[in-house]
């Protein structure tokens, strides 16, 4: 049997449908691949091959008896460690939740189960999704499959690296300020951040509730389309879930670039490295050649996105993480003292430095005397950013820009300078502030062989159009990336 882990998601789906191989054979290939390379990558925090194989055998039995749940029945999918699966550890890569087993399934897990996907939990992440490099995990640092001396991006770096290294063909992550799109770009895979409210957040451990959104990674565009189609839709368990008309996967198709209005940035405004800027210019030229009409947009307001994002996100994280007190669940310090000492010691020892930094910043911005000056002003600026997008989409069909200003940086390069680390999200945070959908698409390699990603952004609930544009961009030879088969 050939190594099936080398196949794209589409080839896996097609081969299962034609009976060329079984789910058990696919799963065994992924297990072999995980055993062979994850010691170098560190994508998974936990891995139970017996359980995954048992699920694969159940899928094969359904296929044999013609009782398939869907065309995707039997395809393994990686799950980020902040998405609850009943009976499984959900630690958010934090010591404070290292012994927490979820009593229920997240809505996205329920939906994926109904389609027959096989779960491969848990992929590593920045603790409580706070980070841009997956160096903030309490347990391990995930590495980039293209160069293990470099980061895979974050906070969903484990999910991105697992796909890029062939340990799964698709995975789930969460995106608060770029945490799907940025690691997708740095690992050379596809990553979609849906419209806020399009995918239920029920069962996603919250970082910043008004910004978080679950979305898929994949080693081809079709995996992102299928997984998004499987998990999207209204959910009564989530009060922020949108009752928009359902996404229709049949409306995602190749079209013509001719006459499409594409919003672009001035290259100098992207703050991109020379290699990323060069590829951006090449692809803008390719779009023009195909008949697209490029319109340069005024992104000057977006220079405020990082401070606005971090004030809002940290304020919400300060509130959300107050529930982790050492009393009801999770880590508890067993030292002697007053009740207040239990809170202080449990949180001090349970949370990592970056989480504590953001809690302190958020608590400060919400405190008496500072609320209006910082948090209140940030919320007003957020409204302006949202209105800016609304004006953009009156003039263009979608926006085309780099996902990350640089390719993957070295492990440890920015850990001592939080501001430089935060600036890694400069091209992605506005999408979350406005709640619009965006996808990072592979866009080739730079001069030292590291992936570059390009981001497409469309208006609220226009995922059908957005994914069609991504499908069309996939036809350009400049976007092709061969994922690494050998991890050095």
Automatic annotation (TrEMBL):
Keywords: ATP-binding, Ligase, Nucleotide-binding, Protein biosynthesis, Transferase. One of its GO terms (biological process) is translation. Signal peptide: none annotated. The active site is at residues 80, 155, 179. Residues 25-467 form the Amidase domain. It is an enzyme of class 6 (ligase). It holds the Pfam family Amidase. It catalyses: L-glutamyl-tRNA(Gln) + L-glutamine + ATP + H2O = L-glutaminyl-tRNA(Gln) + L-glutamate + ADP + phosphate + H(+). GO terms for molecular function: ATP binding; glutaminyl-tRNA synthase (glutamine-hydrolyzing) activity; transferase activity. Belongs to the amidase family. GatA subfamily. PANTHER family: GLUTAMYL-TRNA(GLN) AMIDOTRANSFERASE SUBUNIT A, TRANSAMIDASE. HAMAP family: GatA (MF_00120). This is Glutamyl-tRNA(Gln) amidotransferase subunit A. The lineage of its organism: Bacteria, Pseudomonadati, Spirochaetota, Spirochaetia, Leptospirales.
């Amino acid at each position: 049997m050939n190594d099936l882990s080398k196949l794209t998601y589409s080839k896996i789906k097609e081969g299962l449908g034609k009976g060329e191989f079984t789910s058990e054979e696919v799963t065994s290939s992924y297990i072999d691949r995980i055993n062979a390379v994850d010691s170098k990558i560190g994508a998974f925090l936990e891995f139970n091959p017996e359980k995954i194989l048992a699920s694969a055998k159940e899928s094969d039995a359904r296929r044999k008896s013609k009782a398939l749940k869907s065309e995707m029945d039997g395809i393994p999918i990686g799950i980020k460690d902040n998405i609850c699966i009943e009976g499984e550890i959900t630690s958010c890569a934090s010591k404070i939740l290292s012994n927490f087993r979820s009593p229920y399934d997240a809505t996205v897990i329920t939906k994926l189960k109904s389609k027959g996907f096989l779960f491969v939990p848990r992929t590593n992440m920045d603790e409580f999704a706070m980070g841009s490099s997956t160096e903030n995990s309490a347990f391990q640092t995930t590495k980039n499959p293209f160069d293990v001396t470099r980061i895979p991006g974050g906070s969903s770096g484990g999910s991105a690296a697992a796909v890029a290294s062939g340990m799964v063909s698709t995975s789930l992550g969460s995106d608060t300020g770029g945490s799907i799109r940025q690691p997708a770009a740095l690992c050379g895979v596809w990553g979609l951040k849906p419209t806020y409210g399009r995918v239920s957040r029920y069962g996603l451990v919250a970082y910043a509730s008004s910004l978080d959104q679950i979305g898929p990674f994949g080693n081809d565009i079709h995996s992102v389309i299928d997984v998004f189609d499987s998990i999207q839709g209204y959910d009564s368990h989530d009060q922020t879930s949108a009752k928009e008309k359902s996404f229709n996967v049949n409306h995602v198709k190749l079209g013509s670039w001719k006459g499409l209005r594409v919003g672009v940035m001035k290259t100098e405004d992207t703050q991109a490295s020379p290699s990323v800027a060069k590829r951006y210019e090449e692809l803008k030229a390719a779009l023009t050649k195909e008949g697209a009409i490029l319109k340069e947009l005024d992104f000057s307001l977006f220079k405020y996105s990082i401070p606005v994002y971090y004030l809002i996100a940290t304020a919400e994280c300060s509130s959300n993480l107050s529930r982790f007190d050492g009393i009801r669940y999770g880590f508890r310090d067993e030292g002697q003292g007053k009740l207040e000492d239990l809170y202080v010691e449990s949180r001090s020892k349970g949370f990592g430095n970056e989480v504590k930094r953001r809690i302190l910043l958020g608590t400060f911005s919400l405190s008496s005397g500072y609320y209006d000056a910082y948090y209140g002003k940030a919320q007003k600026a957020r409204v302006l950013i949202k209105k800016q997008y609304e004006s953009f989409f009156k003039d263009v069909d979608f926006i085309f820009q780099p996902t990350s200003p640089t390719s993957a940086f070295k492990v440890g390069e920015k850990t001592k300078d939080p501001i430089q680390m935060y600036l890694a999200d400069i091209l992605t945070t506005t999408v979350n502030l406005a709640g619009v959908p965006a996808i990072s698409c592979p866009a080739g390699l730079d001069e030292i062989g590291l992936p570059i990603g390009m981001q497409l952004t469309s208006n609220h609930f226009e995922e059908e159009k957005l994914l069609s544009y991504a499908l069309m961009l996939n036809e350009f030879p400049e976007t092709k990336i061969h994922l690494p088969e050998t991890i050095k």
